[in-house]
Amino acid sequence: MAGTSKSEGRTGLLNGLAAYGMWGLVPLFWPLLKPAGATEILAHRMVWSLAFVAVALLVVRRWAWAGELLRQPRRLGLVVIAAAVITVNWGVYIWAVNSGHVVEASLGYFINPLVTIAMGVLILKERLRPVQWAAVGVGFSAVLVLTIGYGRPPWISLTLAFSFATYGLVKKKVNLGGVESLAAETAIQFLPALGYLLWLSAHGGLTFATEGIGHASLLASTGLVTALPLVCFGAAAIRVPLSTLGLLQYLAPVFQFLLGVLYFGEAMPPERWAGFALVWLALVLLTGDALRTSRRTARALGLAVTESSAEAPAANATADVTGATGVTGATGAVREAESVASGVSGVSGVSGVSGVSGVSGVSGVSGVSGGAAATGVAITGVATASAVPGAPAPEAGVSPLAKQ
Questions:
Q1: Could you tell me if 45 and 29 are in contact, meaning their C-beta atoms sit under 8 angstroms apart?
Q2: Spatial separation of the C-alpha atoms in residues 132 and 130, rounded to whole Å
Q3: What are the pLDDT digits (tens) for 48-88?
Q4: What is the C-alpha to C-alpha distance for residues 273 and 145, in angstroms, rounded to an integer?
Q5: Quick one: which of 178, 220, 259, 286 could link to 378 by a disulfide (CB 3.0–4.6 Å)?
Q6: Residue partners of 243: CB distance under 8 A and separation at least 6
Q7: Residue 294 pLDDT
Q8: Residue 379 CB: number of other CB atoms within 10 A?
Q9: How far apart are CA 202 and CA 309, in angstroms?
Q10: Cα separation values, 239 from 16, 74, 346, 377, Å
């Protein structure tokens, strides 16, 4: 049993590394699609993603959710909102990468956990611990420093962070599995995207049929590039702890940042380094607080289970009423511990995951929006990861990072 558990954990970790690694390296892919513009690439991504997930759903024969969704106008409306928000996220990310703003795009996913927490306070009326307030304050200072450094607000970063955080929040309300969620969203995106491609073709601007079979194949592969990380994220989300997913989600923006600086050669003047340093400090505070809270929660749950086990013999030896009272007490202890856990999930922060669901992210991970759809968003694991703010489900997840 222990061997199976270790094997499962190893499999989950490898899938998590694969998912966030792919999302982190995706800036290398979008420039290969030139001379197609960002809008054409986005439209192809929508069309081919639907084709890919439709085939996946045919293979696993999972269609019952579609009929249920169509009978629930409120949930369907939320899916429409999710599709609109992730369209903005995908489009801005592709444009940013192909326009030489990879570093600024990576910043969006660094600050995503902070934006997710801020939205939790403003929209969901959540309460923050002092360290979380400090992290949000440091993050706000970072944005001010970067605004001065850029000579303008870092609007690419802010658009990516707010769109993916909103995506994670909406996906949490919809509560669909990763593949199902991506299928529903791309089904909504499909007709407008196909209509745009037909219009572009009629006006002689479509590169799909004019730049050779290699270019057409790369455009068609945008569906695979969107869905494959989500599949890996889903396999990871059901096998590894949320705290591990939370830490893994930082791989994507780290890889993107390094690519921007070392591969694409983007400028990093001192004031920009100062802004990024403040963001990283905020994330260190946030992650440290989340890990401490997670450990306290685990201890509280363990204590509740121990007390429940100790009370069981006594409860059996007493009258039914007394026994019921003992069970109620144990249930209360477990619920109290679970309430602490829910507080952790609100922070642990790690937006790539929440988005994905998902990011979820983070309700979703879908993970990092750049790839997921996060984003964020992956198979059966998304619901598990959706408690983490910010990874999609990673499409959150998204998902992380339906992320780029």
A1: no
A2: 5
A3: 999 988 888 888 788 888 888 888 899 999 999 999 999 99
A4: 10
A5: 178
A6: 290, 291, 294, 348
A7: 76
A8: 21
A9: 72
A10: 10, 32, 20, 15
User: Among 382, 294, 369, which residue's Cα sits nearest to residue 90?
Assistant: 369
Low-confidence ranges of the chain (pLDDT < 50): 317-403
| Three-state SS at 403 | strand
Give Cβ neighbours of residue 127 (< 8 Å, ≥ 6 apart). 121
Q: What is the pTM of this model?
A: 0.75
Q: What pLDDT, on the 0 to 100 scale, is given for residue 3?
A: 58
Residue 404's pLDDT is: 53
Q: Identify the DSSP state of 31.
A: G
List phi, psi (to 5°) of 300.
-65, -40
Helix axes 222-237, 2-25, angle to 10 degrees: 150
Taking the C-alpha atoms of residue 26 and residue 255, their distance in angstroms, rounded to an integer, is 9
Helix ranges (DSSP H) in 203-250: 213-220, 222-237, 242-248
Would you tell me how many other CB atoms lie within 10 Å of the CB of residue 95? 18
Give the pLDDT of residue 312: 55
Q: At what angle do helices 155-174 and 112-122 cross, to 10 degrees?
A: 60
Query: CA-CA distance, 106 to 334, in Å (whole number)?
Result: 40
Tokens for 296? 């306290």
What does the pLDDT read at residue 118? Answer: 85
Handedness of CA 309, 314, 317, 318 (dihedral sign): negative
> Which DSSP state fits 36?
S
SS3 362: strand
- CA 227, CA 233: separation in Å to the nearest integer? 10
